[in-house]
Design brief:
10-stranded mixed sheet
Length: 300
C-alpha cells in the first residue's frame, strides 16, 4: 500500500469534569461528558477475556487465528525482505519491531485472564535500525464494525519513550493506483506517552489533503493500575470513556467505515521521544480483556 498509518498528534490540552475544580478549568464541550455509559443500549458482539492461550493469526500456520501481529500497511508476505515495514511505523520514527510469534520473536506473556505485551531491548529488528522488540495485536482478520462501543481494560507502563495505545482504523480502501496513499481515518481510544496520570483521546481525519487531529489530554489517577478505556462511535458523535464515565465528545465527521481494533506498545518516536537511562525495561502493558458491542436501535 501507500503511506503507512499516521499517529502524530497536534495536542490540545483539557481536563475531564472530575478534576475541573482542582485545575480551575472550564468543562469539556459535549452534552455527554460527565455522564455514565448506558450499557442497556449495548449488545456484546466480540469478547476476548484471555482465559485461553492467545489465538494468533498467521497466513500460513494459523489462518483461523483471532489476533494478527502486524499492521495492514506494507508487504504482508512474511518471506518478503521488506515485510518488517509492516511491523513498525517508520514515519513516526519509532524504534520497536513488533515480533512475529510464528517466526522470529514472541513479545507476549500470557496467563489465564490477561495478556501482557513486553517491550525489551533486542537484536531482532536491529538490521532495520530497530533496537527494541515489542508487540501489537489487531482484529484486522477476525473482527470489524462500523458503529458501536469498543473497550479494553489495560494497565500501562510509564517511562520516557514508551507509547502504549488502543485504537481503531478501517480496512484498506481500494485505490486507483497501486501504492497510492490511504485516506487518514483513525480513532485513538487512548494513547500514553510514558507519563503517569494522563492519556490522550483523539480522532484523525483528512480534509482537502490536510491531516486534521482532534486531540484531548485526559487525566487518569494512575495508568499503572487497571482502568477500562472505551469509545462509543455513533453516526453523529464519538464519545470517549474512562471507567464508564464520558470524558470527551467530538462530532463524527467521516468515521463511517468498518474498523478493527489494535492494541500495541510502541517504543520511541517523534511524539514521546526516545528512551533514556531512566526508562525501565522490560516494560509491560497488560490487557485484561477486549470487548466490542453493537448499538441497539439506530446508531446515534
Amino acid at each position: 500500500m501507500g503511506a503507512p498509518l499516521l499517529r502524530v498528534s497536534c495536542i490540545a490540552l483539557a481536563m475531564p469534569f472530575a478534576l475541573l475544580a482542582a485545575y480551575g478549568l472550564q468543562p469539556l464541550q459535549g452534552e455527554e461528558v460527565g455522564k455514565r455509559l448506558d450499557r442497556s443500549k449495548l449488545e456484546l458482539v466480540f469478547a476476548e477475556e484471555f482465559d485461553e492461550p492467545i489465538s494468533f493469526y498467521d497466513v500460513e500456520h494459523a489462518p483461523e487465528g483471532r489476533w494478527k501481529t502486524n499492521f495492514r500497511h506494507g508487504v504482508q508476505d512474511p518471506a518478503s525482505p521488506i515485510a518488517w515495514q509492516a511491523r513498525t511505523l517508520v514515519p513516526n520514527e519509532e524504534l520497536q519491531y513488533y515480533g512475529d510469534p510464528f517466526r522470529d520473536a514472541n513479545p507476549f506473556e500470557w496467563r489465564p485472564g490477561e495478556l501482557t505485551i513486553v517491550a525489551t531491548r533486542s537484536e531482532v529488528g536491529a538490521p532495520h535500525g530497530l533496537p527494541y522488540l515489542s508487540g501489537l495485536i489487531t482484529t484486522e482478520t477476525s473482527f470489524e464494525q462500523t458503529y458501536g462501543y469498543f473497550e479494553a481494560r489495560v494497565t500501562m507502563p510509564v517511562g520516557k519513550g514508551l507509547w502504549p495505545a488502543f485504537w481503531l482504523i478501517p480496512g484498506l480502501v481500494p485505490q486507483p493506483e497501486p501504492g497510492a496513499p490511504q485516506p487518514i481515518r483513525e480513532v485513538d481510544v487512548f494513547e500514553n506517552i510514558g507519563k503517569d496520570g494522563e492519556v490522550y483521546a483523539s480522532v484523525h481525519r483528512e480534509e482537502d489533503g490536510r491531516h486534521i487531529t482532534d486531540n484531548q489530554r485526559i487525566p487518569v489517577d494512575t495508568v499503572t493500575e487497571p482502568h477500562t478505556y472505551g469509545v462509543l462511535v455513533g453516526r453523529n458523535t464519538i464519545t470517549w470513556y474512562v471507567d464508564d464515565v464520558a470524558v470527551k465528545e467530538s462530532p463524527n465527521v467521516d468515521f463511517h467505515k468498518p474498523a478493527h481494533m489494535l492494541l500495541n506498545l510502541a517504543v520511541g518516536g517523534d511524539w514521546p521521544g526516545n528512551p533514556d537511562a531512566t526508562t525501565r525495561f522490560p516494560a509491560r502493558m497488560t490487557i485484561d480483556w477486549v470487548r466490542a458491542y453493537r448499538l441497539k436501535g439506530p446508531a446515534s
